[in-house]
Write a structure and sequence with these properties.
Structural class of chain A: alpha/beta
Helix content of chain A: 25-40%
CATH class of the largest domain in chain A: Alpha Beta
Largest sheet of chain A: 5 strands, mixed
Protein name (chains A, B): ROK family protein
Number of helices of chain A: 11
Shape of chain A: globular
Number of domains of chain A: 2
Family (chains A, B): Belongs to the ROK (NagC/XylR) family.
Distance between the termini of chain A: 18 Å
Strand order of the largest sheet of chain A: 3-2-1-4-8
Oligomer: homodimer
Pfam families (chains A, B): ROK
Number of strands of chain A: 13
Order of helices and strands of chain A: EEEHEEEEHEHEEEHHHHHEHEHH
Chain lengths: 345, 345
């Protein structure tokens, strides 16, 4: 019996698999791009090919899996939003058949990231924390009493669907005014474009990002560059990165967009802090790298809406773990199951 | 050793004490009005007088206390908002000195009400519930994984300070746009008065509550009756009851006020459901007795903002327990401490 745990991290852009030591160190990892438009078996073969390359030793202690939601839980039939080939795919069961006789456990990928931060990252020692990811979507996981909160169906932590603006923009969930609708990268970029933002403008030679550049929504201004336009249509996060860069360069519309996202984050976090008596919030994901442009307005709105004594102690910090975080959190479902796994084996 | 538990329920309008059987039945109870403006020892003597009248048998199994917040927890130094005589009063310690050698446990009164509904009321069997009180304030308690959630400092459950309208009215907590600022009885009545509501108008002979009665905020209309005005200044809940009655009689401003409160409740509940994956919400307190006038708009807003599959299962129901609920919940801290008490003895 090895003391290594096999960790699997299934996302819309990449699949990753790794071997994790009992202390959380990732000692080997393999990655592959998620096949675009692959059917169920193509996706499965991509995963098994990845596992073959990793060559896990005989007798790993268990298998931990993080996967994009939604899924039935703890059964682990997955239907990741951005992976049409898997709809009700029995991912946990298929992996359990391949690795018989050991625990095979699965959770939402955002929950695995929160678990990773609590176990080995910026959230160590917190009794009550929310681990967030702000990127193409906005997700999270809740740790209360030092243990993962599953909620009734394993879906606790959906902070992206806390309502921040009841009359706000439509959300992918079917509602409107959710944090995710306002603060996800693509939503943010769309808002900025509607306000007249011209991607890359502020950073271009001879352009200074002065307030005079602001355009009314009626004035289309220049077309976005082909590259940015395409990336925006494809994914949106590249455009959000451009938006953050333009904000850093002083573009007033880009700055307003970052402020809008930061305030929405602060309001949603305040609601979560007041409801769940949190002491810590960690924020990871692409947009979190915007630094003060995002965290400044976030802190301002958060402090406006957390005035009760207990709520004022909350700290919001960037996530500490890098690209291995998903693997670390998935492994923790097995290695530290006493804190991060509630259902039976 | 008796198998009875002594339960104490300390509120801004009354003190109650009771003896509770292991199955949650209250077999004896005494009540007394909270002394207005009493200093610390006056309040304490009121409580001890109440306990003397109750005559608990020797050797009760423990003492459970529900008290208005805030308090340090689990130490139980209480500073109830509406009881100025107690500021940092060591209520738990004083009761522990009077009942030595047995568990003496304290929690926020709203949390005790949630515990009562989960243990013996409308929330039995729920794995993930929010128990709410909507009255002069809006409070609550969270039960996740079938256990009470304390949060880091015993303050989890403050659903009244989930933000429902970031640009909304100021809240007693110092923030603005909190659910409580919109939906608490006095806030609701104040809003209706500002819209031109004339308390009791719709129910008076010869008045029909037609839309023509609506007045602009600039038009003061008739003064509220002395009684209602006094009650509003004193407490606000009596006026909220009048508001509900007027809404039931068809007064359009009163109806709009109930709709406004119901929608705010629905939005805050949706945020809590999405974040915590709840299957049930119970609502007690005076305003909850408005029935469909409140629950109709609540359900409408809730369903608009809970569109993810897991969130759609949530049910919102009236609380089932009556005036003894506070005693039942306080007793449960001792009797069912495995589920409703996390700190040590």
């Amino acid at each position: 019996m090895s003391d290594l745990t096999l960790a699997v991290d299934i996302g819309g852009t990449k699949f990753a698999a790794g071997l994790v030591e009992p202390d959380g160190r990732v000692v080997a990892a393999e990655r592959v791009a998620t096949p675009r438009g692959g059917d169920a078996e193509t996706l499965w073969e991509t995963l098994t090919g990845l596992l073959d390359r990793l060559e896990p030793p005989p007798g790993v202690a268990g298998v931990g899996i993080g996967c994009g939601g939604p899924m039935t839980w703890p059964a682990g039939e997955v239907s990741p939003l951005n992976m049409g080939g898997w709809r009700g795919f029995p991912l946990r069961e298929r992996l359990a058949a391949r690795f018989p006789g050991i625990p095979v456990r699965i959770h939402n990928d955002a929950i695995c990231l929160a678990v990773a931060e609590h176990w080995r990252g910026a959230g160590r020692g917190s009794a009550a924390m929310l681990g967030m990811v702000v990127s193409t979507g906005v997700g999270g996981g809740l740790i209360l009493g030092g243990r993962i909160v599953d909620g009734g169906t394993g879906n606790a932590g959906h902070v992206g669907h806390v309502v921040v603006d009841p009359g706000g923009p439509p959300c992918g969930c079917g509602g409107n005014g959710c944090l995710e609708a306002v603060a996800r990268g693509p939503g943010l970029a769309a808002w900025a474009l509607a306000q007249g933002w011209s991607p890359g403008g502020a950073g271009s030679p001879g352009r200074t990002g002065s307030p005079g550049r602001a355009r009314s929504p009626e004035d289309p201004g220049g077309e976005p560059s082909g590259q940015d336009g395409e990336l925006y249509r494809e994914e949106g996060t590249a455009t959000a990165r451009r938006l953050a860069a333009d904000a850093a360069a002083g573009d007033p519309i880009a700055l307003a967009a970052m402020t809008r996202a930061g305030r929405a984050l602060g309001i949603a976090i305040a609601s979560a802090v007041n409801l769940c008596d949190l002491d810590l919030v960690t924020i990871g994901g692409g947009l979190s790298q915007a630094g003060g442009l995002l965290f400044g307005p976030l802190e301002e709105a958060l402090r406006e809406h957390t005035r009760m004594g207990f709520a004022q102690r909350v700290r919001v910090v960037p996530a500490a773990l890098g690209q291995d975080a998903g693997l670390v959190g998935a492994a923790a479902l097995v290695i530290a199951g006493d804190r991060y796994w509630s259902p039976g084996p």
